[in-house]
Amino acid sequence: MLIPSKMEIAIALQATWRVALRDRAAAWMLDDSVSGVWKSFFVAVLIAPLYVLVSVIRGYLDQPPQDVTAVIAIESAAYVAGWLVWPVISHEVARFFSVRNAWRRYVVAYNWSHVWIMLLQLPLLALSQSGLVSAESGGFAMVLTVLLVLAYRFLLARDILGIDRLAAMGVAFLDFVLSIAWSLTVLRLVAPYVALPEAAGG
Predict the structure, then answer these.
(1) In the chain, what are the domain boundaries?
(2) Which of 40, 51, 125, 191 can pair with 111 through a Cys bridge, CB separation 3.0 to 4.6 Å?
């Protein structure tokens, strides 16, 4: 994996932040060379600690693993593989819409956007799990998070892939559905190694 410089990280984060603010020109700040694409996968390393924290809060506080080693192995493999799923699928999406020339820049933006999405999700998740807000308020916060992420993915597809609004909505929704399917698959894989509440209480 190629490692970006601090300056390259700063530029990528600034560009993806400006994309979220609907600045279409920001996409041209991104390095869409082959090395730029590979460097964008360094985001997986940057946000890995936050991903672990989110996974623990969501899945393992109330149901601690019976086999920690197996759960770590499955979650780690799924995390690494998950970073390849959408880039591969989006390549076919770009080919379908005849915008393959924009695919590399889209992947770079998509990968770096995970930083902002994680920084959005983490405080809202922590708030909803803290008990400081009602279950209804926590649920509303999570729904709002999903809508904001969908809107961001829509902007990436429209402004960087360069497809029309309806197609961009479809791409954002497909990404969302596949991410849910991937998460459910991981949950099924780790389920045999996680204690059920009844079993833990017994």
Answers:
(1) 6-194
(2) 40
